[in-house]
C-alpha cells in the first residue's frame, strides 16, 4: 500500500521544504494518469493540501480538484474528489495517509471513477444487483464488480445476489472468477451468490423439494378415472394409474390436482380433500419429493386423452383397479387405495384448505387441516 507522509510545514526545515517541493512533480501516482501538486500557505496554522486530478481519457483535459483542510486538532480529513457523483456509486481503493504521525484511511483519492453496480439492499443486510442495468462490456463488469465487492464489504453487507439473464451469460465466468458461486438456474437466468462475512454462508439454499399431485377421481358407478402413460419403465407396461403431475409455481395443491386431471384426461373435476401425502428423498436431481393424493369429484365423464403424455385413459371399476398386481404388490399404493376407500365409506377425514394470513409476512396462504364435529365421528364432510 502506497503511503504519503504529511508533516507540519511550519516546523519543517528549509531543506525539507525544498526537497518536498522538488518532488511534487514526480508523484508516485503519475502512472495512474494523475499529476499531483502541493500548495502550502504559511498563514495557516497547518498546511492546506490540494490534489489536482488530470483526466487523460478526455481529449479536452478535465481538471477536478479536491481540497483537504485541517480540523481543529490538526488532523486532515478527506473529502470526495468528485462531489457531483453519488457517494454510493463512486469508489476506489483505500489509501492510508500518515498525517502528523497518525494513520488515516481515505477512500477514492486516486480512482479512475469506477462506479458500483446498480443494486438495492434486501431486508437481511444483503444486496440484490439489478439484472437490467448491468454493464455491456465484460471488462467493465469485472472492474465494477470488484469495486462493488470492496464497497459492500466496507458497508458491512452480507449476502450478494447476482442474477444474470440468459442473454448476459458471458458474464458468468467473470463473476465466478471473483468468487461468486452457483445458487440455481432457470430457463431464462442463472443466480449466483457471494457471502462476505467470515464463517459459514447463511444464505438460503436452492429449493430442495419438488411437489407432485395425484387425482383420485371416482364416479357414482364406483369407477376410477385411470391412465396409462406414454413413457414408462418396462415393469409398468400394464399399469393403470391415477392421473399425476407436478404443480406449477404459485399454484395451490388443490388447483394443481384439478388441472392435471383436466390436462391428461379432459375430465372436469371438483376438489374434495387431500387424502394423504408421501415424502421421499434422493429422487430427480437428488431432490426430495412431496406427493399429495387428492380426492376429486367428477363434473364430466367424457374423456379426451392428452396425446403428448398419455397413451390411454378410461373409467375402470374400483374392484378391478385395486386387483392390479402392481397395486397389490406395492405397499404405498395399496395403502393409498385403502385410505381412499375408507374416505368413500366416511370412515376417514382428509385435509381441507383454509385461507389464512400470517402476521410474519402478511400474505394469504392455505393451511390444510380437517374439522370434525364432536357428534360426527364418521366425518360426513363433503
TrEMBL record:
Keyword tags: Hydrolase, Metal-binding
InterPro entries the record matches: Nudix_hydrolase6-like (IPR003293), NUDIX_hydrolase_CS (IPR020084), NUDIX_hydrolase_dom (IPR000086), Pre-Nudix (IPR040618)
Organism superkingdom: Eukaryota
GO terms for MF: ADP-ribose diphosphatase activity; metal ion binding; NAD binding; NADH pyrophosphatase activity
Domain Nudix hydrolase: 208-338
Family: Belongs to the Nudix hydrolase family.
Protein name, per record: Nudix hydrolase domain-containing protein
Organism: Populus tomentosa
Lineage, highest ranks first: Eukaryota, Viridiplantae, Streptophyta, Embryophyta, Tracheophyta
Amino acid at each position: 500500500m502506497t503511503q504519503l507522509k504529511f508533516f507540519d510545514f511550519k516546523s519543517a526545515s528549509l531543506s525539507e521544504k525544498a526537497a518536498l517541493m522538488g518532488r511534487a512533480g514526480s508523484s508516485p501516482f503519475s502512472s495512474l494518469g494523475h499529476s499531483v501538486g502541493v500548495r502550502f500557505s504559511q498563514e495557516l496554522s497547518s498546511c492546506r493540501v490540494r490534489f489536482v486530478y488530470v483526466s487523460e481519457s478526455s481529449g479536452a483535459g478535465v481538471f477536478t480538484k479536491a481540497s483537504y483542510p485541517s480540523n481543529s486538532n490538526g488532523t486532515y480529513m478527506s473529502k470526495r474528489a468528485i462531489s457531483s457523483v453519488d457517494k454510493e456509486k463512486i469508489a476506489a481503493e483505500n489509501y492510508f495517509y500518515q498525517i502528523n504521525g497518525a494513520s488515516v484511511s481515505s477512500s477514492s483519492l486516486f480512482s479512475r471513477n469506477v462506479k458500483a453496480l446498480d443494486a438495492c439492499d434486501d431486508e437481511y443486510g444483503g444486496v440484490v444487483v439489478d439484472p437490467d442495468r448491468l454493464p455491456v462490456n465484460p471488462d467493465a463488469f469485472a472492474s465494477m464488480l470488484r469495486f462493488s465487492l470492496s464497497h459492500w464489504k466496507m458497508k458491512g453487507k452480507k449476502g450478494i445476489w447476482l442474477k444474470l439473464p440468459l442473454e448476459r451469460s458471458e458474464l458468468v465466468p467473470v463473476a465466478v472468477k471473483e468468487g461468486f458461486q452457483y445458487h440455481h438456474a432457470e430457463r431464462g437466468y442463472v443466480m449466483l451468490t457471494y457471502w462476505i462475512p467470515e464463517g459459514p454462508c447463511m444464505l438460503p439454499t436452492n429449493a430442495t423439494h419438488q411437489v407432485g399431485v395425484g387425482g383420485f377421481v371416482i364416479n357414482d358407478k364406483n369407477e376410477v378415472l385411470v391412465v396409462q402413460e406414454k413413457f414408462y419403465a418396462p415393469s409398468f407396461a400394464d399399469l393403470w394409474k391415477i392421473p399425476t403431475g407436478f404443480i406449477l409455481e404459485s399454484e395451490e395443491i388443490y388447483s394443481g390436482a384439478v388441472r392435471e386431471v383436466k390436462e391428461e384426461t379432459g375430465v372436469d373435476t371438483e376438489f374434495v380433500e387431500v387424502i394423504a401425502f408421501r415424502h421421499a428423498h434422493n429422487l430427480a436431481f437428488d431432490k426430495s419429493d412431496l406427493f399429495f393424493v387428492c380426492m376429486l369429484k367428477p363434473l364430466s365423464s367424457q374423456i379426451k386423452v392428452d396425446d403428448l403424455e398419455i397413451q390411454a385413459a378410461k373409467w375402470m371399476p374400483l374392484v378391478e383397479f385395486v386387483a392390479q398386481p402392481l397395486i397389490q404388490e406395492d405397499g404405498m399404493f395399496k395403502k393409498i387405495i385403502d385410505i381412499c376407500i375408507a374416505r368413500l365409506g366416511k370412515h376417514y377425514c382428509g385435509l381441507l384448505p383454509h385461507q389464512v394470513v400470517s402476521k410474519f409476512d402478511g400474505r394469504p396462504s392455505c393451511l390444510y387441516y380437517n374439522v370434525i364435529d364432536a357428534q360426527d365421528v364418521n366425518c360426513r364432510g363433503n
